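re: that chain from earlier
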Amino acid sequence: MKKIFLAFLVSGQIMYGQTPMHKDSVKSNQLEDIVVTANRVQTHKSEVPVAISKLSLKTINETKAISTYELLNKTPGVLMVNLGNEQHSMAIRQPMTTNAYYLYLEDGLPIRPMGVFNHNALLEINQFNFQSIEVVKGPVSSLYGPEAVGGAVNLISLEPSLQPQLKVGFQADQWGYRRFQVAGGTTIGKVGFHVAGLSSSQRNSWMTFSDYNKDNINARIDYNISNKIKLYGTFFYGEYYSDMTGTVNEADFYNRTYKSTTDFTYRKSNALRSKISFEGKWNNNSNTSFTVFTRNNKLGQNPSYGIRWTQGITTAKGEINSNNFKSYGLVAQHNQKFEFLSSSIVIGGLFDYSPVDYNAYQIDLLANLNPGGQTVNNYQILAVRPDIKLSDYEADIYNKATFAQLSLKPLQNVIITLGGRYDNMSLDYINNVDKSKGDKVYDQFTFKAGANYNPFTFAGFYTNYSQGFSPPALTSIFRAKPGTGGMNPKPAEFYYNLESAKFNNYEAGGWVSLLDKKLQFDYSLYYMEGKNELLNIRQPDNSTDYQSAGKTLHKGIEFSLNYAVCSQFKIRVGGTTAQHIFVDFKISDKPSDPVKNLNGFEMPSAPKWTGNSEVSYYPEWLPNFRASLEWQMVSSWYQDQINTVKYQGYNIFNSRVGYQWRGFEFFVNAMNVTDKLYAYNVTKGNTASSPATYTAASPSTFVFGLQYSLFLNKKPH
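^ sequence. v structure.
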């Protein structure tokens, strides 16, 4: 695929160019107040009773992100955790977690079907294809369904340009990273098209055994049948392969010995998504959309996180797994406005049929220990054991949903929003490990109610109550419990009784806009109760035991301030303070365990403070030059569930500069400019002797890039 892509790059296809760096018009500023994710229709932010943030095309273009976390972490209340080579976990109104509490959308459509959550879903994404990114914080299950608990991330793609345009680029760093990218599009008569692709690779980085390749292509074609009716289709195909370095031990981390303990672990993905959408705008008050979609994903792994080793032992176990699914579905939606109370309603439904197969089997490993025998220097494969099945199932998943949302304006400055959704996920399964067949159903009605009060032109307030839920992922249900199955004396036991996690969220917030919109401040306060939250208990050998927990509590304050000091300086300050607490959660019945009940304990990997702030400079004496300094702050967190050991957190600084000359843009991104030693996450088991594992962050990294934008037949302003 790479040869085809590079030929496409050289051929010079045509696409969007960039706007000037710092000539923001009033109109473009107003457009930043328009969001679509919160209500499924274009709406002013001041009219939706949720915490929603939007990353604009200007921000995306100036960031020149290698990985999506560089963009999303600019959003207050969001901490996207970099796991290397675009792999990631997330923390939005939750601790840093890989659990299925986030919904990742592409143009409003979930990237994965319900029940097949993958915390790495965004590694497939083409960063060169974003128009904007919207992040809704808190449960939005009443509109988008399960897994939209901590929040929803909606990646909004570029549309065909009206005139022929081209954008090509290259960027690289000193650690062996390279990326080529190209995008092009135009409109001819009633038909518009847009193509975007990238090819990236990593070789011989600061961390041993961390190479990867990624090749993506997006295509879109629009057919404007009339001024009321439009058809458009999109296509995405991506290939990804990465060495999986995993974590390092404490001594290696502090000695900056960035050495992987394996040279055989990997993650590979092939993803295809396509859809055809019909949009009918019958008049100013009525429009309908209908989308037919397909997905085809193949994910294979020899995961570093799947290695199970008991301290001091010279053998270990790993696994090789594959998780494949196809999807065939449709979603329909109608929006209607009424004169009565200036009301509007959104109604719709979803059907998604997704056959899934999953297989995981054991590999036997030799653990070569460091002096003292407390940590591993490296692992070696002794035997591949497809005869020892850790998991092996097939399932046909049927997701059905109906949703409705009503907004009305009973008073001049008051907007009431009510919404509800019913989801039904049923699956027919064959478990080839215990030779069982059956079916399961997870269904839930979720509700939300909110109000906006905008008494002034410069300030407004909102409040809401919303529900969220997330059924257990199939990979959790059909995973043999630790100590059962395989070579263990006990036959395989499974998590058939796991329940859906349910959440009740109470929230209030507001906005203030002063100094002719030069200063804008947004804030939100939330209090979210969780019940049956799916949590994992880390065992001494690093295996995982799942539980539907009793109760948890998540509460916090999110805030952002944007201040255009003058035409040359802009300041952005954003952050959150939060607590994530076990309310009723029992982890052990063993008399030998010092802690059996975690009631009142803080959840692990849950920093109380996170923040991302930035100062940007656009000098008038050097037009088309930009410079920025960004500060990322993450406070300390407990490494274990029993709250005995903390990691101190980190403060790092990133700098970005760029200069446009005619159609060329030259840029340099300096990441971690002070060469801070820090880790994105640090975890350990609950026993005193459990070693801590560090997800090491990179040393200072300098990304150099050149981008060329061509405007063909562009009319003067």
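The longest strand covers residues 376-411.
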